[in-house]
Amino acid sequence: MSLFTRILFVLLGLFITLNWGLIMSGIIRKIIARLSMRRGIKVVQPYINLIKNFSIRSQLTHGVMFYLGPVFRLSGGVGVFLFMPMIYGSIYWTNFSFTGDLILISYFLFFGMLGMALGAGEGGHPYSAIGIGRGLAQFTAIEVPMTLAIISIAIQYNSLSITEIVAAQQGGIMNWTMVTNPFATIAAMLAFLGMMGHSPFNVVMAPQENPIGPPTEYHGTFLGVLQTNRAILHVVEAVLFMNLFFGGATNWGILILKTFLIYFYTVFVGMVFPRFRVDQSIPWFFKIPLVFGILAIVLLII
Amino acid sequence: MSDKKDIHEDKFLAPENRKHVVIGPDGEEIHVDPLNDYFCTDMPKVEKPYKGVMEKFLNWARAESLWVLAFGTGCGSIELPPLFSPRFDAYRFGVAMRPTPRQSGVLIISGYLAVKTLKRAIRSYEQMQNPKYVIALGSCTINGGMYWDSYNTINRLDHYLPVDVYIAGCMPRPEAVLAGFMKLKERIKKGDAEGANEYVEKLDWYKANQKKIIKDWNMPDYNW
Ligand code: SF4
């Protein structure tokens, strides 16, 4: 396949991912609404919000970093996508994955956060600063069990290539990491709760308490870029977990089903449990997921 | 509009907003003039809408996604939360609350405006980005309502901010507020809701009115 067709397929994949992300968030909010006996938003509301934000006429800036914040955030999301093999066994939808992509992707997950922190910091709003402080502290706590789980998988499959990890899980549910390495799965899935930022770990963007957090000053196109990134990032993070623990996907239908279930799990937990404060959530990550992460590694080595 | 000079001599200027000198950690003297250094002194411009189908499409999106600033004054602020409860469920019309003026497009003045609150309402309104809409809720915003001869409230809101939709009543029920939202949507889709641009065009008049009421004007002329 020539480089040109490859790039075309990557762009097409990005387009599908973006749309699925927007529709998925619409569907999920619809489900939440029906659960609380409301009609809720239209399923296409995320699209309308996006168009609305891009149509704001006047915008103001607080400096160069303020501009670059959303750009970094978006490149974080798109970066994860670029190196993520979406569909196993397809030459078209593996994007630019290579043998060490797992490490690179873990970096990209953090990269966007840092860029956003710099940008929102220049916005100068106190709530942004509080949100950033909380966000970075919490994400650091999330990274530890997450990294342990990734190391555990790397030892188990003797590989840092996501494609190889997916390949090793083919041939039925009994080969999935979920079954063969349950402790790593538990550690990572608990860390995933924090990554998605739903309740109980939504103190970063906590509405009512710390209005909106880091993006307080972002509006119009800036906010539109952040929303675009959110849609992409939610899908690719779910794809990452699907590839690592739930046997990957061999076509788009399975990918859509599995990512929906993985994403829905975080929403489900969020509907059931109330919000943690930062001084509760960080110790929590250092207690339960961390223990599972260590167990996952120790058991493998024994 | 007063020019910058008399802002600085304003006796109402808060102490932290006066010119002062800060000594840096290495002993360097830094002269700070907060009104010029911390605030943007530019004036807003009229932002021309697009023409034809494009503007129609964008107006449709703006109408279907109304983000309301969570800003409450008067009795009405307690009438707004039920809008988002299962009974009235404003979400289904694309209405949502935003906690920051930067991201919201609709300002609801939900009742009488005390002189003190007027200042905050103006600041919040000016921090919102074009296009933006104002809904005036309750008789108090129309003619002063039962506070019309109060020493401390304004009577007609549209002397101070460009109002798009009035909802009469004391206090209008949530159904009336929803009907007001529908009215606003109609106006936006028709392309009539250009309050933000009107405000800029008649800025002198609005500012003169505002300054007549707000005696301790200790902020920039336009709060970006
Ligand atoms: S119109 Fe009536 S309910 Fe509304 S603010 Fe005035 S007095 Fe209160």
Question: What does this protein structure show overall?
Answer:
- The complex is a heterodimer of chains A (302) and B (224).
- By secondary structure, chain A is mostly helical.
- Helices cover 71% and strands 0% of the residues of chain A.
- Chain A is built from eleven helices and no strands.
- In chain A, α4 runs antiparallel to α5 (126-157) and α5 packs parallel to α11.
- The model of chain A has no long low-confidence stretch (mean pLDDT 91).
- The two termini of chain B are 16 Å apart.
- In chain B, the strands form three sheets. A three-stranded parallel sheet of chain B has the order 5-6-7, sandwiched between helices. Chain B has a two-stranded antiparallel sheet with strand order 1-2. A two-stranded parallel ribbon of chain B has the order 3-4.
- Chain B folds into two domains: 7-38, no CATH class; 52-213, Rossmann fold (3-Layer(aba) Sandwich), CATH 3.40.50.12280.
- In chain B, β1 and β2 (29-32) form a beta hairpin.
- With 224 residues, chain B is α/β, with parallel strands linked by helices.
- Classes of the chains: A mainly alpha (302), B alpha/beta (224).
- At the A-B interface, α2 of A face α3 of B.
- Iron/sulfur cluster (SF4) is lined by residues 74-76, 111-112, 138-140, 145-146, 170-171 of chain B.
Helix-strand blueprint:
The complex is a heterodimer of chains A (302) and B (224).
Chain A lengths: L2 H33 L9 H10 L9 H19 L18 H23 L2 H32 L4 H7 L8 H4 L1 H15 L23 H26 L6 H21 L5 H24 L1
Chain B lengths: L3 H5 L11 E4 L5 E4 L1 H4 L15 H12 L1 E4 L25 E4 L7 E4 L5 H13 L5 E5 L1 H4 L22 E3 L6 H17 L4 H7 L1 H11 L11
Parallel strand pairs in B: 3-4, 5-6, 6-7
Antiparallel strand pairs in B: 1-2
Helix pairs in contact in B: 3-6
The structure holds iron/sulfur cluster.
